[in-house]
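Students often ask why we bother encoding 3D structure as a string. The short answer is that it lets us treat folding as translation between two languages. Here is a chain of 405 residues written in the first language.
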Amino acid sequence: MSLALEEILCLPGLQDMAVRAGARNLQRRVRWPYVAENEGIAEWVMGGELVFVTGINHPRGEANLLSLVEDGEAVGIAGMVILTGGTFIQGIPPAVIARAEQLGLPLIEQPYALKMVVVTHLIGTALVQMSQVRRSRNDILGQLLTGDYPSLAIARQRAAHLELALDRPRRLVALRLSAVDELFERHGPAHGERLWQSTRQALEDHLHAWCRNRPGAVMAQLPGDLLVLLLAEDGDLRMALAELHRQLLEVAGEMGLFMGLSSLAEDCAHYRQALNQARQALEVAQNLRPATGLCDFSELGVLRLLQGIVDRSLIDDFVGQTLGPLITPGRKNPYSLVHTLDALLKENGNGLKAAQRLGLHRNTINQRMQRIEQLSGQSLDDPLFRMNASVAMLIWRMTETQGKE
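And here it is in the second language, the structure alphabet:
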């Protein structure tokens, strides 16, 4: 049960609250409001609170406010609200604003004229309502993803009522944290559980924020450790997911994270099949560990066979023997021959089309084709070499940091 700070600030009746620092982190999730009545807050909060500082029960000079900002950021509060303009705190000292901005802690100013009871009531009510809506959304999404619904017509009606636009084409992404066993082995059951729960919560918060900024994106939370995204298909989806994976690795800390991408589901009637595809792709990603963290179901044909090879060095040796001679370290474009081979394979060996794909002159492609055959000792007309090269290219694209032309 949580709301983003930016969602709270948009609640009717709270328009007089103003962000003074930490605006870049307004996507932080607020789990509950907390009114600070003691000198410090470190031992009274657990993380995720929106802390209100009134100055009523304790003097709040600049030194104390700076201490609250430091402690609040250290223990992971969502943000801090300082009431100003009344008898107790006339204004927020510039040094406090500057420090909060430096730390990235959202700092919000609330005028005393805006009654605390009104603010906390609005936030508390919104949190409860959001919890109910999210529970209902997860319920209907869970039914559609597992196929466990009494009536597809009713499921569609419920989705429409909850403002879930599910009758448009979507691709599903299945996400899961990895190396969980190692986390518990390193830290033991108690500390390991705290790390696991906090990381999982941070992961969910980041995904919620990411979905809010991507049109049509929906997140579903199923029982267990699997997270699911429903995404509209567009041209930059793979690039967006690669960037998302990079961001999530920072959140995951000691653990890793992998993703599986389904083929396109035309509407919610096909979600169960799409989730099955995404889970299969996720399993392959966990075994082959691609650099982008993502495996696409459409590429699973050969990869499903390769994941059965226990010794990963056999796969690496195969790629190295097939493509290694074509890579020229130290040159401006060390992967130019590899990219040329990739284009030739995609165009079924047609040099003219490969040249058009790469934006090169046909003579340049001809020279590169000769060079590929010289270095590899293979003929581009040999179907066995082209098959091996296609498989090696598929693995290489997944696991290597590739150069650009």
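Translate back mentally: Confidence is low (pLDDT under 50) at residues 401-405. Keep this in mind for the problem set.
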